[in-house]
Amino acid sequence: MQKWEYATVPLIVHATKQILDQWGEDGWELVNVIEGPGGQGLVAYLKRPRSA
């Protein structure tokens, strides 16, 4: 059975693409983007397979 690890990343509006590209290069897959707590900015939720 596949095991996953997860990360949450605050996104800066003027650097969203660069942030997501960097995490993608490290093997992370974007799952969702939602408003942060209190409606302050956006938060990306990412996952990647856990190493054995």
Q: Tell me the number of strands.
A: 3
**General shape:** flat
Strand adjacency order, main sheet: 1-3-2
The largest pleated sheet is described as: 3 strands, antiparallel
Protein name: DUF4177 domain-containing protein
Walk me through the structure.
- The chain has 52 residues and is of the alpha+beta class.
- It has one domain (4-49).
- It is built from 1 helix and 3 strands.
- The chain has one helix at residues 16-25, and strands at residues 4-11, 29-35, 42-49.
- The mean pLDDT is 94.
- This is DUF4177 domain-containing protein.
Features:
1 helix, 52 residues, DUF4177 domain-containing protein, 19% helix, alpha+beta, single chain, 44% strand, 3 strands
Question: What's this, in brief?
Answer:
Helices cover 19% and strands 44% of the residues.
Layout of strands and helices, then pairs:
Blueprint: E1 4-11, H1 16-25, E2 29-35, E3 42-49
Antiparallel strand pairs: 1-3, 2-3
